[in-house]
Design goal:
By secondary structure, the chain is α/β, with parallel strands linked by helices. The chain folds into two domains: about 100 residues, Roll (Urease, subunit C, domain 1), CATH 2.30.40; about 280 residues, TIM Barrel (Alpha-Beta Barrel), CATH 3.20.20. It has eleven helices and 14 strands. Helix 4 links the parallel strand 8 and strand 9. The relative contact order is 0.17. The structure holds arginine (ARG). The site of arginine (ARG) has 15 residues, from helix 7 and helix 8.
Length: about 425
């Protein structure tokens, strides 16, 4: 493989949470071969990427995206007018925006069957630009739950019946086991289950349990038996605890966690993925795009508490991985969440670690991404300004490299 030398002025070590000054990354093809000091003699005529005046970080990782979703369509009636291609086309645009924003890996936790799997494959084949994707299928939901289409006339039969094999609606341990096995058959990397109610759905409550402990346990055991991790959407206090006790790997949202939930998460090593930017967008711009009052009311009931509980959980020592629910707000704005993570208790370095090393660990790719050390992919971003001084500079990433290939470079223009 071809050798490239990347001169990095300030290289963020995501293990240590601090910079190393003036290093040379030696790349062999798409991977890092070695990390050398500035005294390293780069052979004359070699291919050099000069970031010697810049802040160089591992490519960012978002553990909670929906690449097929659009943040300018909040009217649920839209879903009856769409074909699977509607979200597939959107996902092509969204994948590029995500990569251009400096996110070189994402975990997609809920798309139409099996859009994210196909998108992952198309990107890996080099057909489309986009981040590395750890793909789930559609989220598992109870009948009438957060993932179902609720409160329409039963004559329309818009409920996604399990006998139509939609790979999503599953009630009881047996259907859950079958659905997860079917998802594995069609190539998902990870399983997503909707443990409690949610905000952006009709006829349910974020705080109310949907799956029982027994069902969550079957889900976790089945996912793990297929060699996959499992993420649970859980806003509700009881569902968070049930999901942790069931052995689920990450709690998404975790809005209404209590002290016992925090204690359990620490004891089990469960990650929290808390999307604490979304409240701004839902209570702001989403109103222009047809969001219903029912959903706004639910958001008002969880948004602020979620941010306060983010601080509580982090300060108590719960493992935190960066995840934003991209698609609720426009793809490409993922880094807007860093501001809130720092406002609610993290240092900029800790917030960046949540989006690099911790995220890589949660998505099961710690040996490939999240750290710029030998053997890892050459996935990196570069900035003119220091994000440890002002984390918001991550909202405009001028330089992105994925697998040793420059995906975006606006450094020269600055
Ligand atoms: N997908 C989530 C739900 O509908 C979004 C929650 C966003 N709100 C928040 N405060 N994080 O439940």
């Amino acid at each position: 493989p071809a050798t490239t030398y990347v001169k990095a002025g300030h290289l963020f070590d995501s293990e240590a949470g601090a910079y190393r000054q003036n290093v040379v990354l030696v790349l062999a093809g798409d991977r890092i071969q070695s990390v050398e000091s500035s005294s390293f003699a780069i052979p004359t005529g070699a291919k050099v990427v000069d970031l010697s005046n810049d802040y160089v970080l591992p490519g960012l990782i978002d553990c909670h995206t929906h690449l097929g979703a659009r943040a300018d369509k909040y009217d649920p009636i839209n879903s009856f007018k769409e074909t699977p291609f509607t979200s597939a086309y959107a996902s092509v645009v969204n994948a590029k925006r995500t990569l251009d924003a400096g996110f070189t890996s994402v975990r997609d936790v809920g798309s139409l069957p099996f859009m994210a799997v196909d998108l992952r494959n198309a990107i890996n084949e080099g057909l489309l630009p986009g981040p590395r994707i750890v793909a789930s299928g559609p989220p598992l939901s109870i009948t009438g739950g957060h993932g179902d289409l609720n409160n329409y006339s039963p004559q329309t039969r818009v409920t996604m019946f399990p006998e139509e094999r939609d790979f999503s609606i599953a009630d009881g341990p047996e259907q859950i086991r079958q659905t997860i096995r079917a998802q594995a058959k069609y190539g998902v990397d990870v399983v997503k289950i909707l443990a409690s109610g949610g905000v952006l759905s009709k006829g349910d409550q974020p705080g109310a349990p949907q799956y029982t402990f027994e069902e969550l346990k079957m889900a976790a055991d089945t996912a793990h038996a297929t060699g996959r991790k499992i993420a649970a959407h859980a806003h509700g206090t009881q569902s968070i605890k049930d999901a942790i006790n069931a052995g689920i790997d990450s709690i998404e949202h975790a809005s209404l966690v209590d002290d016992e939930g925090i204690r359990l998460a620490k004891a089990h090593g469960t990650y929290f993925v808390m999307d604490i930017y979304d409240d701004d967008y839902i209570l702001g711009k989403a109103k222009d795009f047809g969001i219903q009052e029912e959903m706004l009311a639910k958001e008002r009931s969880v948004g602020k508490l979620q941010r306060e509980n983010f601080r509580k959980a982090f300060e108590a020592g719960v493992k935190m991985a960066f995840g934003t629910d991209a698609g609720v707000y426009p793809h490409g704005d993922n880094a807007k969440q860093f501001h809130y993570m720092v406002m609610y208790g993290m240092t900029p370095a800790q917030a960046i670690q949540a989006a690099t090393r911790n995220a890589a660990d949660l998505i099961g790719r710690a040996s490939d991404v999240g750290v710029l050390s030998p053997g890892h992919y050459a996935d990196l971003i570069a900035l003119k300004e220091d994000p440890l001084q002002r984390v918001e500079v991550l909202e405009h990433v001028p330089f992105v490299m994925k697998g040793g290939v420059i995906a975006k470079n606006e450094l020269a223009a600055k």
